[in-house]
Predict the 3D structure of the following.
Amino acid sequence: VDYDKMTKEEREELVGPERLASLHRALQEIGNPRKTLIAIHSTIGQLVEQLDEMLGELLSGDEDVIEGGAGLKGKEELDEALSGIKLYKGETLLELTERWKLLQNKLYNEEKDKFDLSRVPDVHDNVRFDMLHNPHLGLTETLQKLYDLA
């Protein structure tokens, strides 16, 4: 369904009368809901790749140890200590990565080629959580894109 390409009658049949302005504005902003869901799923994939890369750096042994045993340095001088990262409420980087992988898998069922719309609020909640509590991971750009989509 592409809201912009629908006639007035088709929109009213799908959404309701024009007086339901907020619904019509929301659909107009989304455009094609399936394309937006695909973009959300793809962006979560990018986020998972970034997290997997961080985990890979942790396990590679190529990083320098930070003085005082606070963890490992990444390749960039501004990278935080990867193994010493303090995630909110003791969550580990692996748990954070698995949380996003699970959400990505539950959002889209490849076998049925269907999206679970009930997961979109979960995406929004997880993005807000990580933006508020784990901004030091350097994922802000990807999280912001995901926030805008969800």
User: Anything to note?
Assistant: The first strand starts at residue 108 and ends at 109. Strands lie at 108-109, 114-115. The chain is about 55% helix and 5% strand. Residues 65-74, 77-83 have pLDDT under 50 and may be disordered.
